[in-house]
Amino acid sequence: MIDAICSTLDEMNTNYIRIVGSTPTNIRAELVERFQHAAACRCGVLSVTAAGAGLTLTAAALVLFAELHWNPGILTQAESRAHRMGRAGGVCVRYLLASGTADDIMWPMLQDKLDVLNNVGLSGETFENTTFTHQESQFQITQYLSPKSSYKNRNDYIPGTNIRKVPQSSDTNSNGNTGVNNEQTERELDSFMEHDETDELLADLAEDSELLADLAEDSELLADLAEDSELLATLDKDDELLANLDDNELFSNT
Asked: N or C terminus: which one in the chain shows less Cβ crowding within 10 Å?
C-alpha cells in the first residue's frame, strides 16, 4: 500500500517524506523536521505502526488513512500526531474504506471496541459522529497490485524522500535548454537544503554560546583569583604590621 501511494505521488510530481519500519532511527527526526518546515514537502507517507506515536506532525491539515488497523488505539494515536499542542487550526481526518472488502467488517468492529473502552473509562475517543461520503474511483485497483517496472536508485535521492540530490540532466526541452522540471527540482532541493543550513547555523551559534559561557566562567575565575591575591596582599601587610608592633614592644621593654 505504501509503495502504491509513493508511486502515485511520484507520477504527480509531489514531494513527500516516507517513514516505515525499515527507516533508520537516526534520520526519522530529520524527516519530521523537513515535513514540518520545508515548504517543498507536501506529503508524509507514514506507516501507522512505525510513525503512529512519538512524532509531532502539526504541519499537516489533512490526515488520510489508506488502511485500517485492528486496534482503535493505534488509529487514534496516529491521528494525534497532527492534532496536538502547537497545531493552529483544525485537522481533517479521513478513513478510506473500500466497499466489498474486509473494511466492511473492520470498521464496525473498531466502533464496537471503542464503545467498550469508553464504557469502562479507558478512552474518550469515538467514531460515532463520523460522516460517510461515497467517491467513485477513477482508476482500477488492479493497477496497484503489480510492482512498477521503473527502477529508482535510492542513492540518487535524499534519504526518506523522492527529492533528487542532483537534478537530472536529461530533462531538457527541444531547444536544448534546461526544462521546467529541472528548475522546479532545483528550487525544491534548495528549499529542503535551506533547513539544513539553518540547522548548521543554529549549531554554530550554540557552540559560540558555549564558548562565551566558558569565557565568562574563566573571567569569574580570574576575578576570584584577583580577589584572593588582594586578600593575600592584605594579610602580608597585616603580618608586617604585627611584626613591627612586636619589634616596638621589644624595644620599649628594653
From this structure: C
